[in-house]
Amino acid sequence: MEEIVEGVNSINLSSDSFKKNRIQVSNTKKPLFFYVNLAKRYMQQHDEVELSALGMAIATVVTVAEILKNNGLALEKKIATSTVDIKDDSRGRPVQKAKL
């Protein structure tokens, strides 16, 4: 758990990013509580955080949001869903993925 907190604290939150309070969640790159701790840090700096995920990572983003809500750290403001076209080289055509 300490290495997760250290990883979150070492992230550079520069002001040149497009959306300063958006976290793009992956279900394979980082542990679940990395995103929970990162969301807490973003909320301290920006008062709100936007969680975003594609495909199978949607389950991870929902879990992160529920942990934050159940601990009284966040409220749901808005939920938006859509689909995006992802190029799939093996099939030779675009594949639609869910986006939350």
From TrEMBL:
Residues 21-79 form the DNA/RNA-binding protein Alba-like domain. GO terms for molecular function: RNA binding. Transmembrane segments: none annotated. Signal peptide: none annotated. GO terms for cellular component: nucleus. This is DNA/RNA-binding protein Alba-like domain-containing protein. It comes from Cucumis sativus (Cucumber).
